[in-house]
Amino acid sequence: MDYNSNLESYVRQWAEKQPDKTAVICDSETITYGQLWQQVTEHSRDYQQAEGRAVVIRSTQSIFFLVQYFAAHLAGKAFVPLEENCTDARLSSIQHEVNACSIPGNVADILYTTGTTGQQKGIMISHKAIMADAGNLISAMQFAEDLLFIISGPLNHIGSLSKIWPTVMAGATLCITPGMKDMNQFLNAFQLPYPKIATFLVPASIRMLLLFARKELCSISDKIDFIETGAAPMPQADMEALCLLLPHARLYNTYASTETGIICTHNYNSDYCVAGCLGRPMPHSSVFITPEGYVACKGDTLMEGYVGDEGLTRNVLHNGTLFTSDCGRIDEQGRLHLTGRIGDIINIGGYKVNPIVVEDVALSFPAVSDCICTPSPHPVLGTVLRLYIVPQSGSEVDKKELSAFLQKKLEQYMIPQFFSIVDHIERTFNGKLNRKYYLTGIK
Length: 443
Description:
Elements: H1 7-17, E1 22-26, E2 29-32, H2 33-49, E3 54-58, H3 63-74, E4 78-82, H4 88-100, E5 107-112, E6 122-126, H5 127-141, E7 147-151, H6 158-169, E8 173-176, H7 183-188, E9 196-200, H8 203-212, H9 214-219, E10 224-229, H10 236-245, E11 250-257, E12 261-267, E13 277-281, E14 285-289, E15 294-299, E16 305-306, H11 310-316, E17 317-318, E18 321-330, E19 336-341, E20 346-348, E21 351-353, H12 355-363, E22 368-378, E23 382-391, H13 399-409, E24 418-421, H14 435-438
Parallel strand pairs: 1-8, 3-4, 7-8, 7-9, 9-10, 10-11, 23-24
Antiparallel strand pairs: 1-2, 5-6, 6-16, 11-12, 12-13, 13-19, 14-15, 15-18, 17-18, 18-19, 20-21, 22-23
């Protein structure tokens, strides 16, 4: 890989080699590589004249967003995409923060985390890291010119933004949809005349498809080359259900974060379908487990640091290694398995409970559509487990039956004392369980 190049050099390359090739599809609008490069170069002149090192904008699911993205880079700016519904006050605050800091010249993007585990942080990603991430994905998932990659998630989050990188590098075509709010529009994209179609979906979106569009998924199964998931744990039951529906598709579970970049992946529709297995490191990355049991990553995909916080950067990134808060292990095949996260583990009478394990089993109960396991105060026992449950449409959850079901599959200390029926589970905009929301008021 030529690290002296950048993503924009590939846009230019494909504009020269195949100017009439469709680069992006969005609703009824399309743009070729030749047109894309022309618009990028025109808008880059405006950014070159703008003050400041960074371009801060609200992200949109549009072709124009990609024009802005590449144009900012071409102008030597760092691109800072915020959520589409970002308030004026937040946008102004972020703009002030990045303008007040010295941003290294090699930084291409600054992505702000969702803040579910603490204060929101601006994470600086270099052009070199983008190229390494793209190389990892191309090598592992076989991006090629004849691929159509469908993006449905927000483009200010690395899960979706990072799929622009290998698609453009490979000279393939992007299809941008407005998300899963209009499931039919997402599914209709698979009818476009491309021989190979792929997408990235968070586990919550996959569950929606399994619940409400199982028949439609079956009807397009032969058109799906691969589906990648990440950002949150994938329940075992959903993994198995997707394998049955899409027997010929490659189904990847990927380990990645904004800080680490794209590290490991595993095709669980091959010969090893186990929740928490995230596979082996990709070519430009490596991973090991610290003596304390936490995942640590090395390689060219790592972040440059946090905006304006050198102390926090040093806490997690030193000697070329990024130390995460994820608990994990590496099996005899060299595959990474996640076993929890520091802030998520619940102490129940001295036992350490990973709530994901409880949720995974509960989701295999036929009447449960969605759930989250949290700590809850008890007047006698101290801290116990509470399971918030969303019933399947048209079903009722018998709490005694659910408790008996869990007792057959889990240790006694992992059985929730309380069960609460709710109409939805709080999630962040990118599909992660919003555990912080449920911890309000719990000490």
